[in-house]
TrEMBL record:
This is FeoA family protein. The lineage of its organism: Bacteria, Pseudomonadati, Bacteroidota, Chitinophagia, Chitinophagales. Residues 7-78 form the Ferrous iron transporter FeoA-like domain. It comes from Nemorincola caseinilytica. Keywords: Iron. SMART domains: FeoA.
Amino acid sequence: MVDEKAMRLSQLPAGTKAVIKDHEDNDLRLTLMEMGCVPGEPVWVEMIAPMGDPLAINIAGYYLSIRKKEADNIWVIRDPS
């Protein structure tokens, strides 16, 4: 279960660092994990498109463009630093 400090990746502003906590339990879970979005992995929201979709994130040493709808399925804990 996701803890109370967790938020959705899609809620983070550009330039924010976080750590992936969990995923929604749905069909997209395996796809997200195959793209490197695994629990415990640090993630940085690099850019957000002007209309808010997609997001460019830096994860596992590479850049990934992810739709906001997909980012809604990823729970993260914001990096306090």
